[in-house]
Protein backbone atom coordinates (compact mmCIF):
# COMPACT_ATOMS: atom_id res chain seq x y z
CA UNK A 1 0.00 0.00 0.00
CA UNK A 2 1.16 3.51 -0.70
CA UNK A 3 0.37 6.85 0.89
CA UNK A 4 0.91 9.71 -1.51
CA UNK A 5 0.93 13.37 -0.57
CA UNK A 6 0.32 15.77 -3.43
CA UNK A 7 0.94 19.52 -3.18
CA UNK A 8 -0.54 21.76 -5.87
CA UNK A 9 0.48 25.41 -5.88
CA UNK A 10 -0.22 28.32 -8.17
CA UNK A 11 2.72 29.22 -10.40
CA UNK A 12 4.76 32.16 -9.18
CA UNK A 13 3.53 34.41 -12.00
CA UNK A 14 -0.16 33.72 -11.39
CA UNK A 15 -2.17 36.14 -9.27
CA UNK A 16 -3.71 34.63 -6.12
CA UNK A 17 -6.80 36.66 -5.15
CA UNK A 18 -7.80 34.14 -2.46
CA UNK A 19 -4.38 34.50 -0.86
CA UNK A 20 -4.73 38.29 -1.05
CA UNK A 21 -8.08 38.11 0.74
CA UNK A 22 -6.62 35.94 3.51
CA UNK A 23 -3.70 38.34 3.89
CA UNK A 24 -6.06 41.31 4.27
CA UNK A 25 -8.14 39.39 6.81
CA UNK A 26 -4.98 38.62 8.83
CA UNK A 27 -3.98 42.30 8.72
CA UNK A 28 -7.43 43.25 10.01
CA UNK A 29 -6.79 40.84 12.89
CA UNK A 30 -3.53 42.68 13.67
CA UNK A 31 -1.18 40.11 12.18
CA UNK A 32 0.56 42.84 10.24
CA UNK A 33 3.79 40.79 9.96
CA UNK A 34 2.17 38.74 7.17
CA UNK A 35 3.69 39.86 3.87
CA UNK A 36 2.29 37.32 1.47
CA UNK A 37 -0.14 34.42 1.44
CA UNK A 38 -0.34 31.87 -1.37
CA UNK A 39 -3.03 29.24 -1.27
CA UNK A 40 -2.75 25.80 -2.78
CA UNK A 41 -4.18 22.34 -2.44
CA UNK A 42 -2.97 19.38 -0.46
CA UNK A 43 -4.19 15.88 -1.27
CA UNK A 44 -3.60 12.55 0.40
CA UNK A 45 -4.11 9.48 -1.77
CA UNK A 46 -4.12 5.89 -0.58
CA UNK A 47 -3.15 3.39 -3.28
CA UNK A 48 -3.16 -0.37 -3.35
CA UNK A 49 0.04 -2.03 -4.50
CA UNK A 50 0.64 -1.46 -8.14
CA UNK A 51 3.53 -1.21 -10.57
CA UNK A 52 4.97 2.09 -11.75
CA UNK A 53 3.54 4.06 -8.83
CA UNK A 54 5.62 7.12 -9.51
CA UNK A 55 4.79 7.25 -13.21
CA UNK A 56 1.08 6.75 -12.53
CA UNK A 57 0.97 9.41 -9.80
CA UNK A 58 2.70 11.85 -12.12
CA UNK A 59 0.06 11.14 -14.78
CA UNK A 60 -2.80 11.62 -12.29
CA UNK A 61 -1.34 14.98 -11.29
CA UNK A 62 -0.80 16.28 -14.81
CA UNK A 63 -4.11 14.95 -16.16
CA UNK A 64 -6.51 15.65 -13.30
CA UNK A 65 -5.19 16.88 -9.98
CA UNK A 66 -3.34 19.97 -11.19
CA UNK A 67 -3.98 22.43 -13.99
CA UNK A 68 -0.45 22.63 -15.32
CA UNK A 69 -1.14 25.83 -17.23
CA UNK A 70 -1.36 27.79 -13.99
CA UNK A 71 -0.29 25.31 -11.30
CA UNK A 72 2.82 23.40 -10.25
CA UNK A 73 2.69 20.12 -8.39
CA UNK A 74 4.98 17.95 -6.35
CA UNK A 75 4.38 14.70 -4.51
CA UNK A 76 5.83 12.40 -1.89
CA UNK A 77 5.28 8.65 -2.12
CA UNK A 78 5.54 6.56 1.02
CA UNK A 79 5.20 2.79 1.10
CA UNK A 80 3.04 1.61 3.98
CA UNK A 81 3.33 -1.88 5.36
CA UNK A 82 -0.02 -2.88 6.89
CA UNK A 83 0.54 -4.05 10.46
CA UNK B 1 11.96 36.70 7.44
CA UNK B 2 10.00 33.51 7.86
CA UNK B 3 8.43 31.12 5.38
CA UNK B 4 5.59 29.18 6.93
CA UNK B 5 3.87 26.20 5.36
CA UNK B 6 0.42 25.43 6.71
CA UNK B 7 -1.42 22.18 6.00
CA UNK B 8 -5.12 22.03 6.76
CA UNK B 9 -6.84 18.64 6.53
CA UNK B 10 -10.33 17.40 7.26
CA UNK B 11 -10.58 15.44 10.49
CA UNK B 12 -10.59 11.67 10.02
CA UNK B 13 -14.26 11.39 11.03
CA UNK B 14 -15.48 14.04 8.58
CA UNK B 15 -16.83 12.97 5.20
CA UNK B 16 -14.93 14.33 2.20
CA UNK B 17 -17.28 14.49 -0.80
CA UNK B 18 -14.74 16.39 -2.92
CA UNK B 19 -12.20 13.63 -2.30
CA UNK B 20 -14.84 11.05 -3.22
CA UNK B 21 -15.51 12.84 -6.51
CA UNK B 22 -11.80 12.95 -7.36
CA UNK B 23 -11.50 9.25 -6.53
CA UNK B 24 -14.39 8.39 -8.87
CA UNK B 25 -12.86 10.54 -11.61
CA UNK B 26 -9.55 8.70 -11.22
CA UNK B 27 -11.34 5.33 -11.40
CA UNK B 28 -13.05 6.46 -14.62
CA UNK B 29 -9.57 7.21 -15.97
CA UNK B 30 -8.50 3.63 -15.13
CA UNK B 31 -6.49 4.46 -12.02
CA UNK B 32 -8.34 1.78 -10.12
CA UNK B 33 -5.50 1.39 -7.59
CA UNK B 34 -6.70 4.56 -5.84
CA UNK B 35 -8.45 3.55 -2.63
CA UNK B 36 -9.01 6.86 -0.96
CA UNK B 37 -8.55 10.56 -1.68
CA UNK B 38 -8.68 13.24 1.02
CA UNK B 39 -8.45 16.87 0.00
CA UNK B 40 -7.05 19.62 2.15
CA UNK B 41 -5.50 23.04 1.85
CA UNK B 42 -1.90 24.06 1.66
CA UNK B 43 -0.86 27.65 2.41
CA UNK B 44 2.49 29.41 2.18
CA UNK B 45 2.87 32.52 4.31
CA UNK B 46 5.75 34.96 4.19
CA UNK B 47 6.29 36.84 7.45
CA UNK B 48 8.57 39.70 8.37
CA UNK B 49 10.66 39.24 11.47
CA UNK B 50 8.55 39.28 14.56
CA UNK B 51 8.56 37.84 18.07
CA UNK B 52 6.63 34.75 19.07
CA UNK B 53 6.31 33.49 15.50
CA UNK B 54 5.15 30.04 16.51
CA UNK B 55 2.51 31.33 18.93
CA UNK B 56 1.19 33.83 16.38
CA UNK B 57 1.06 31.28 13.56
CA UNK B 58 -0.84 28.91 15.82
CA UNK B 59 -3.35 31.67 16.56
CA UNK B 60 -3.77 32.52 12.86
CA UNK B 61 -4.48 28.86 12.13
CA UNK B 62 -7.00 28.36 14.91
CA UNK B 63 -8.74 31.70 14.38
CA UNK B 64 -8.84 32.01 10.61
CA UNK B 65 -6.99 29.51 8.45
CA UNK B 66 -8.58 26.32 9.76
CA UNK B 67 -12.05 25.52 11.03
CA UNK B 68 -11.03 23.49 14.06
CA UNK B 69 -14.48 21.93 14.43
CA UNK B 70 -13.94 19.86 11.30
CA UNK B 71 -10.30 20.44 10.37
CA UNK B 72 -6.84 19.73 11.77
CA UNK B 73 -3.81 21.84 10.97
CA UNK B 74 -0.07 21.60 11.18
CA UNK B 75 2.68 23.98 10.12
CA UNK B 76 6.37 24.22 9.42
CA UNK B 77 8.26 27.43 10.15
CA UNK B 78 11.48 28.13 8.31
CA UNK B 79 13.67 31.15 8.92
CA UNK B 80 14.89 32.71 5.70
CA UNK B 81 17.99 34.84 5.56
CA UNK B 82 17.68 37.30 2.67
CA UNK B 83 20.74 37.02 0.46
Structural topology:
2 copies of one chain form a homodimer.
Chain A: E1 2-10, H1 17-28, E2 34-47, H2 53-65, E3 71-79
Antiparallel strand pairs in A: 1-2, 1-3
Please characterize this protein's 3D structure.
Two copies of one chain form a homodimer. Chain A is α+β, with helices and mostly antiparallel strands and 83 residues long. The first copy, chain A, has one domain (2-79): Mth169, Chain: A, CATH 3.30.1280.10. In chain A, 30% of the residues lie in helices and 39% in strands. Chain A contains two helices and three strands, in the order βαβαβ. In chain A, strands 2-1-3 form a three-stranded antiparallel sheet. The longest helix of chain A is centred in the C-terminal third of the chain and has 13 residues, at 53-65. The radius of gyration of chain A is 17 Å and the shape is elongated. Chain A starts with a strand and ends with a strand. The interface between A and B is medium-sized, with 34 and 34 residues. β2 (34-47) of chain A pairs antiparallel with β2 (34-47) of chain B, so a sheet runs across the interface.
Query: CATH topology of chain A, which one?
Result: Mth169, Chain: A
Number of domains of chain A: 1
Q: Give Rg of chain A in angstroms.
A: 17 Å
Q: Helix segment count of chain A? A: 2
Number of separate strands of chain A:
3
Per CATH, the superfamily of chain A is Phosphoribosylformylglycinamidine synthase subunit PurS
Low-confidence residue ranges of chain A: none
- Could you say which overall geometry of chain A the principal axes of the C-alpha atoms support? elongated
> What's the average pLDDT of chain A?
95
Determine the strand fraction of chain A and express it as a percent band. 35-45%
**What would you call the quaternary organization?**
homodimer
User: How would a crystallographer describe the biggest sheet of chain A?
Assistant: 3 strands, antiparallel
Series of H and E elements of chain A:
EHEHE
Q: Return the CATH architecture of chain A.
A: 2-Layer Sandwich
Amino acid sequence: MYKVKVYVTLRESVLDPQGGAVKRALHTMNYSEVEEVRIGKYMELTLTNTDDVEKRIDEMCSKLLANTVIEDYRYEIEEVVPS
